[in-house]
Amino acid sequence: MSKDVYKILLFMKRRPGMSMEAFEDYYENHHAPLCAKYASGISRYIRRFLTPHPNPETGEKGELPYDVITELWFEDEAVFRGTVQYLSTSIMPDEVVADEKRLFDRPKLRMATVVERESVLQR
């Protein structure tokens, strides 16, 4: 049996007028290092930048509702639950909030939690 992995998924959209290239560059070179300062108890901090592709049936090429899915991984359930509670409030460090306003369309941010379990497959 595998050990449970607890995750917080943050779905975020770049601020209006910002190119995807500028968004990814700023996130990786400024925002991620800033947030890493506050990453106590997090075992992995992953950003998954999304690239939209046309709908196979309609050919529609519209933008996705989110540009990045950020994953915060936890091995300790208590730390995970405490972080969920903390992120569910509006009490964030001023420097993080100010930086998020430069990067994200903050009202569009959504959060979900995951408990991940992996099956060992017979080969």
Give a description of the structure.
The protein is an alpha+beta fold and 123 residues long. The protein has a single domain, classed as Alpha-Beta Plaits (2-Layer Sandwich). Helix content is 31%, strand content 23%. The protein has three helices and four strands. Strands 2-3-1-4 form a four-stranded antiparallel beta sheet. Helix 1 (20-36) packs antiparallel against helix 3 (94-103). The chain starts with a strand and ends in a 7-residue tail after the last strand. The model has no long low-confidence stretch (mean pLDDT 92).
Number of strands: 4
Structural class given helices, strands, pairing? alpha+beta
Structural Rg = 16 Å
Unreliable sequence segments: none
Strand content: 15-25%
Distance between the termini: 17 Å
The coarse silhouette is: globular
Mean pLDDT: 92
Major sheet strand order: 2-3-1-4
Indicate the CATH class: Alpha Beta
Write the layout of secondary structure elements.
Elements: E1 5-12, H1 20-36, E2 44-49, E3 68-74, H2 77-87, H3 94-103, E4 110-116
Antiparallel strand pairs: 1-3, 1-4, 2-3
Helix pairs in contact: 1-3
Search tags:
31% helix, alpha+beta, four-stranded antiparallel beta sheet
Can you describe this structure in just a few lines?
The chain is of the alpha+beta class and 123 residues long. The chain contains three helices and four strands.
